[in-house]
């Protein structure tokens, strides 16, 4: 059977020796199978075998049928930005710490990738956020995010007050360090540390989670994914905020600007080995049920 994937893009941080070793091992394995391999031309790794095509990073998704991200969730989010709008699926090899998105272990990476190439895999389509930062002195700045859009204060030692509207209706003025707007995928990231709920990726929902709220009654809320969220700095607030998407900086939010966040038209497709179990990943990463008595049985 002819594989759907014949050109594989590899992405990872070569500064991490474990990542570089895994990428070199994957490259040799895939080249032995007669597949095309592409990677960022700026990456330097003496252990990469000859035959790997070096391309500009901006073209990596265009030169690939499948992108394999080696590292942690941050690497997967970076790869997702390259794949947005290009219909290129992503497979994650976990060389990071938590790894909710990168679910293939290094010990199983070649066998899992062989299974994917043979057509034995599951597709998992994840929704994206679309954010637009509107400023009176320039063109709007836009982005799309797989995990979250975060508004966080820039001025240390000073609380920021953010006003939120959902679907044109005023919701609240949030006093604290900022606000996280997360997809269901991002509910296990920054929003979780803010007390937000874990939302199964199959649910079309958004989470609004205040960061270190000044008032304990200011709690996270869950809304429909189709909702449009608007955020402004309150007119009486002297603090400024920075807007980031999946960890990358979008721009600065001040009292003359507004941020609009809603559903993106694009989606990202994740590839999982057959038998992918979301709840097993939660048990493993969050150490559910772990104790000296049952740790072995839960692994």
Spatial order of the strands in the main sheet? 7-6-17-14-9-10
Q: What's the total helix number?
A: 6
Radius of gyration: 21 Å
Helix content bin:
10-25%
SSE string, helix = H, strand = E? Answer: EHEEEHEHEEEEEEHEEEEEEHH
Low-pLDDT stretches: none
Strand content: 35-45%
Give the helix/strand class: alpha+beta
**Average pLDDT number:** 92
Terminal CA distance reads 35 Å
CATH topology of the largest domain: Rossmann fold
Task: Tell me about this structure.
- By secondary structure, the protein is an alpha+beta fold.
- It has 2 domains: 7-120 and 274-298, Probable inorganic polyphosphate/atp-NAD kinase, domain 1 (Rossmann fold), CATH 3.40.50; 129-265, Tumour Suppressor Smad4.
- Helices cover 18% and strands 38% of the residues.
- The protein has helices at 17-32, 73-83, 109-117, 190-193, 278-286, 295-298, and strands at residues 7-12, 36-40, 53-55, 66-71, 90-94, 121-134, 141-145, 148-153, 160-166, 169-176, 178-183, 205-211, 221-224, 229-233, 241-245, 248-253, 258-273.
- It has a 6-stranded antiparallel sheet. It has a 6-stranded antiparallel sheet with strand order 13-12-11-8-15-16. Strands 3-2-1-4-5 form a 5-stranded parallel sheet, sandwiched between helices.
- A hairpin with a 2-residue loop joins β15 (241-245) and β16 (248-253).
- The longest helix is centred in the N-terminal third of the chain and has 16 residues, at 17-32.
- The model has no long low-confidence stretch (mean pLDDT 92).
